[in-house]
Automatic annotation (TrEMBL):
<dbReference type="Pfam" id="PF00067">
    <property type="entry name" value="p450"/>
</dbReference>
<keyword id="KW-0408">Iron</keyword>
<dbReference type="GO" id="GO:0020037">
    <property type="term" value="F:heme binding"/>
</dbReference>
<dbReference type="InterPro" id="IPR001128">
    <property type="entry name" value="Cyt_P450"/>
</dbReference>
<dbReference type="InterPro" id="IPR050529">
    <property type="entry name" value="CYP450_sterol_14alpha_dmase"/>
</dbReference>
<dbReference type="InterPro" id="IPR036396">
    <property type="entry name" value="Cyt_P450_sf"/>
</dbReference>
<feature type="binding site" description="axial binding residue">
    <location>
        <position position="445"/>
    </location>
    <ligand>
        <name>heme</name>
    </ligand>
</feature>
<protein>
    <recommendedName>
        <fullName>Lanosterol 14-alpha-demethylase</fullName>
    </recommendedName>
</protein>
<dbReference type="GO" id="GO:0004497">
    <property type="term" value="F:monooxygenase activity"/>
</dbReference>
<keyword id="KW-0479">Metal-binding</keyword>
<dbReference type="GO" id="GO:0016705">
    <property type="term" value="F:oxidoreductase activity, acting on paired donors, with incorporation or reduction of molecular oxygen"/>
</dbReference>
<keyword id="KW-0349">Heme</keyword>
<comment type="similarity">
    <text>Belongs to the cytochrome P450 family.</text>
</comment>
<dbReference type="GO" id="GO:0016020">
    <property type="term" value="C:membrane"/>
</dbReference>
<keyword id="KW-0560">Oxidoreductase</keyword>
<keyword id="KW-0472">Membrane</keyword>
<dbReference type="InterPro" id="IPR017972">
    <property type="entry name" value="Cyt_P450_CS"/>
</dbReference>
Length: 500
């Protein structure tokens, strides 16, 4: 056996050279990472179809990847081959990072509080319409309060997510076309946004051809909306297209129509599976803990009951002041972060700090140019060294004794009694945290507030209307999709709530 190159991280043992650890990683990345950590520590390299992927675990590992300079660790080099055929040219990872950062700022303008205030009522209305019309909720519609019905949670959440995102951010034209051509195009595009596309960008498959056709048609669809609006069609002040049409790059030029179109597609893809997966997991958890679902309902009663025994609609500002709802979502994202692997491609040899791994002669490992680096916040979010009862879903862990929820979020006492600073809130306090469902650093999610608004409104609207139960055992994770979804069966039983 040749001696291992001690300046490089240890390589995970594998039998087949090119294939490497693809099976172990692909089937259950978390289990794979935890067992690698036992053998090799927090830093190791595994082979994934010829790629060399260096994983750095824990809060410090997250910080190493997510806090790395974009000149050293590149998101576009890691992702563009499979995102650009889906989103389209000249946006996100198809442009130099500085330009994408400008585009992110434009999107932030559309994600304003002022816009959000108009969204809660729209989302509530969409969910109620859905419950009143979708065949899965026949028992609910029959007005028979004693009978239980059931629904496949992911199918329902996928529909509710796209209905509510299109009614709000995406805009009226997209919402109006959901029942027509738009859904088909979305499905074809989505069929080309899978782990297979990530691993094998150039296969001669029908799904790739469908993806390319759908991208072109969807891009044209958005461009047409923009042209019509320019010609004075309607008033759409509160949506994302309107916001993007008013922005200018630093050099003074406006966004081209196809850039706006492609940013809209990118936002659709970024928000759809992440939100529908998170909503599915939240409802599954609530269904498995009727006591917490009941407490969530009581939180609604406490704040919104009217003298005639009904629950009035809530505003965006009120939604943000509901500690249990917030903790339920936060805790679900701890156990079920939709994105398990955050990757960058290494542009220059990079030294891993000695605090992270077994040191070489100068106290560091070197991750060579051409490797990928990978952060997995899902590991630190479920690490028994950090969290008491790490695998138990316990929203109460996020509330402090006085119930001043927001303060409790900023620090958490780990199993050794040490206070950990999360750096929550608008001002980031850095990228070293064990809790990062929305990532960290320059590529951090900008959809977090929207996701909380969308998920929060969907969940309370459902909880106001029905009781939930889980009759099967709690579903396992399906890691074969880009976003971690619950495996089937993922059926929730429901019963119309009695208002008395
Ligand atoms: C980035 C998670 C919803 C738009 C990210 C990243 C994560 C994440 C982990 C970092 C990716 C990386 O560093 O490579 C989530 C979760 C969501 C969610 C858990 C819901 C529960 C949304 C929504 C939108 C959105 C609703 C759009 C409205 C974005 C954008 C980025 C991003 C634009 C930036 C990508 C970059 O800078 O490279 N998200 N996301 N996300 N997300 Fe989200």
């Amino acid at each position: 056996l040749a001696p291992r190159d001690s300046s490089k991280p240890p390589v995970v043992f594998h039998w087949i050279p090119f294939f490497g650890s693809a099976a172990g990683y692909g089937d259950d990345p978390l289990n794979f990472f935890f067992s690698c950590r036992e053998k090799y520590g927090d830093v190791f390299t595994f082979i994934l179809f010829g790629r060399k992927v260096t994983v750095t675990l824990g809060a410090k590992g997250n910080n190493f990847v997510l806090g790395g300079k974009s000149t050293a660790f590149s998101a576009e080099d890691a992702y563009t081959h499979f995102t650009t055929p889906v989103f389209g040219k000249d946006v996100v990872y198809d442009v130099p990072n500085e330009l994408f950062m400008e585009q992110k700022k434009f999107v932030k303008v559309g994600l304003s509080m002022e816009n959000f205030r108009t969204y809660v009522g729209m989302i509530e209305e969409e969910v109620e319409d859905f419950l009143r019309s979708d065949p899965a909720f026949r028992v609910f519609q029959d007005n028979d309060i004693n009978e239980w019905g059931s629904f496949d949670v992911t199918t329902v959440l996928a529909e509710i997510t796209i209905l509510t995102a299109s009614r709000t951010l995406q805009g009226k034209e997209v919402r109006d076309n959901l029942d027509k051509s738009f859904s088909g195009l979305y499905n074809d595009l989505d069929g080309g946004f899978t782990p297979i596309n990530f691993l094998f960008p150039n296969l001669p498959l029908e799904s790739y051809r469908k993806r390319d056709r759908a991208q072109k048609k969807m891009s044209d669809f958005y461009v047409k909306i923009i042209e019509n609006r320019r010609n004075g069609d309607g008033d759409h002040a509160q949506d994302m297209i309107a916001a993007l049409m008013n922005q200018k790059y630093r050099d003074g030029r406006s966004l081209k129509d196809h850039e706006i179109a492609h940013i809209m597609i990118a936002l659709l893809m970024a928000g759809q599976h992440t939100s529908s997966a998170s909503g599915s997991w939240t409802l599954l958890r609530l269904a498995s803990r009727p006591d917490i679902a009941e407490a969530l309902y009581q939180e609604q009663v406490k704040h919104f009951a009217t003298p005639d025994g009904k629950l009035r609609s809530l505003s965006y500002d009120e939604l943000r002041e509901l500690p249990l709802l917030d903790a339920v979502i936060r805790e679900t994202l701890r156990l079920h972060p939709p994105i398990h692997s955050i990757m960058r491609k290494v542009r220059h040899d990079a030294a891993v700090p000695a605090t992270l791994g077994a040191p070489s002669k100068d106290g560091t490992y070197i991750v060579p140019k051409g490797h990928f680096v990978l952060a997995c916040p899902a590991v630190s979010q479920t690490d028994p060294l950090v969290w008491k009862n790490a695998l138990t879903w316990d929203p109460a862990r996020w509330s402090d004794p006085e119930g001043v929820a927001q303060q409790a979020y900023d620090t958490y006492t780990d199993v050794n009694g040490e206070k950990i600073d999360y750096g929550f809130g608008a001002v980031s306090k850095g990228t070293e945290s064990p809790y990062q469902p929305f990532g960290a650093g320059r590529h951090r999610c900008i959809g977090e507030q929207f996701a909380y608004l969308q998920l929060g409104t969907i969940i309370v609207t459902i909880i106001r209307n029905m009781e939930l139960r889980l009759t099967d055992r709690f579903p396992d994770n399906n890691y074969h999709t880009m976003i971690t979804m619950p495996k089937k069966p993922r059926t929730i039983s429901y019963r119309r709530r009695k208002f008395d």
